[in-house]
Tetraspanin
Amino acid sequence: MEGDCLSCMKYLMFLFNFFIFLGGACLLGVGIWVIVDPTGFREIVAANPLLFTGAYIMLAMGAMLFLLGFLGCCGAIRENKCLLLFFFMFILLIFLAELSAAILAFIFRENLTREFFTKELKKHYLRNNDTDVFSSTWNSVMITFACCGVNGPEDFEAIPHLPYSSLEKVTPEACCQRELQSREGMFVNKEACLTGIERFQNRQGCYTVILNSFETYVYLAGALAIGVLAIELFAMIFAMCLFRGIQ
């Protein structure tokens, strides 16, 4: 009976580690896609040091889970106590780090409100100044998602236009409609857009556009994160049981 239980734990641990291996491969793939994607995310990531760092953290976490799942599978099948102990300690550190990140994200979620972004935009946005990281990032977001400001073009009424821009009144250049939504895309009618003709402007706010675009993925990511934490917890339990059962 004891041998049957040990064999059952061994294959269950192999199964859990296989899922960790797949999860790591998915994170690795998403991280690579965010960095090399040619449709606009690369510009946003490169312009914002925080996002740039986050993309590489995702890559590192994916590689780590990929390697960890592989080692866990090997440790379970070979019944190697050293590999199992290393696996347990390593996955415990990852589990605690992920749990801390989830708690911090929950605590600071109020910083992701519409009012917060509107206040920051009005305070720091410098229109077409691409040497400013904040402004360049916002311009990339507005161009990529075909949106304007947080709530709409009215967000820019309190922001002074550039002295050398004779056309630009309220709406920045990044809010003008383009034939292709990228920095290289041709304007539909730039002069008319900047002088205030609404049909040549992107009128919808970025907060609503981005929220609608990513709402499904946010819930999916949350469910995936809970699933990964549960898998890691069970993998640690099986690793310790298997470690103690190996003679």
Observations:
- The chain has a mean pLDDT of 76.
- The helical segments are 2-36, 41-47, 49-78, 81-107, 114-124, 133-145, 190-194, 206-245.
